[in-house]
Specification:
The complex is a heterodimer of chains A (158) and B (103). Chain A has 158 residues and is an all-alpha fold. Chain A contains 5 helices and no strands. The longest helix of chain B has 27 residues. Chain B is 77% helix and 0% strand. Classes of the chains: A mainly alpha (158), B mainly alpha (103).
Chain lengths: 158, 103
């Protein structure tokens, strides 16, 4: 039961931060929200009992999102207009999501072994791998983000 | 023993993918459109992992995922190159104005 609850919580978190990519005012915070999307995605890989993929996902977070943040910081002066129509985005998202999901009702997914992932996969993968790689990489990512924000603050003071 | 059905992951990846697709359609900012494509790529990796695991029974999907991640990295590099071009000529990042660059 706790597996399913964790999955639902992380899913809702992922969808909310995905919407916030378009709802925030400036591009720097949008890039920060995208980093949260990547982080949630790496949590999903943990739930799928794939800790290596989760770690590589964090590496991509560190490299790619740092690039996006630098570009976002540099392009603040070009962001003086309304970026996204959030209401239109929500309506369009509902339509596209329904169109994508409706055919699933008429499709029978026949997996190789079973229709389910391994027992207690979240607890096992978190217990064995998180202390070794995941937290260390997350710390590196946090330090990189802090360095960028500090650079931005120092640059703003000048 | 509580397990997570595979359909939940598929629906979730569809939801993330549709956010990315709609983000491209509803945004005017050039960088936000790139971020939307990144969200769609994230959803694609999740769906690819789930479906590969479901079909083959093992999780050895590194080759396909590295292909997807390479696409994402190349996209970031292209973004930086194009941004340098725009910054040199001090062009706005509003795609409605970018569409008139050829005039």
């Amino acid at each position: 039961m706790i597996d399913l609850a964790l999955f639902l919580i992380v899913s809702v978190m992922g969808l909310v931060v995905s919407f916030f990519v378009f709802a925030v005012k400036d591009i720097l915070h949008a890039a920060l929200m995208l980093s949260a999307v990547f982080f949630v995605n790496s949590l999903f890989f943990f739930m799928l009992d794939q800790p290596l993929l989760a770690v590589v996902q964090l590496f991509i977070m560190i490299g790619g999102i740092t690039t996006f943040l630098f570009v976002g910081v540099a392009s603040v002066q070009y962001s003086k207009f309304k970026h996204t129509e959030v209401t239109g985005l929500a309506v369009l998202w509902t339509i596209v999501f329904v169109i994508l999901v409706l055919p699933l009702n008429y499709v029978q997914i026949t997996p190789f072994q079973s229709n389910l992932f391994g027992p207690d996969s979240i607890a096992l993968s978190l217990g064995t791998s998180s202390m070794l790689f995941y937290l260390m990489l997350f710390t590196m990512f946090g330090v990189a983000l802090g360095a960028i924000l500090l650079l931005k603050k120092v640059g703003a003071d000048k | 023993m509580i397990l997570i059905p595979i359909e939940y992951f598929i629906v979730l990846s569809f939801a993330l993918f549709s956010i990315g697709v709609v983000g491209v359609a509803a945004s005017r900012h050039f960088l936000l459109m790139i971020l939307s494509v990144e969200i769609a790529l994230v959803a694609s990796t999740l769906l690819a992992t789930v479906m590969y695991y479901s079909v083959t029974g093992n999780g050895n999907i590194m080759l396909l995922l590295f292909t997807l991640w390479t696409i994402a990295a190349v996209e970031a590099i292209a973004l930086v190159s194009f941004y340098r071009y725009l910054a040199r000529y001090e062009t706005s990042l509003d795609v409605r104005k970018l569409s008139r660059l050829r005039d």
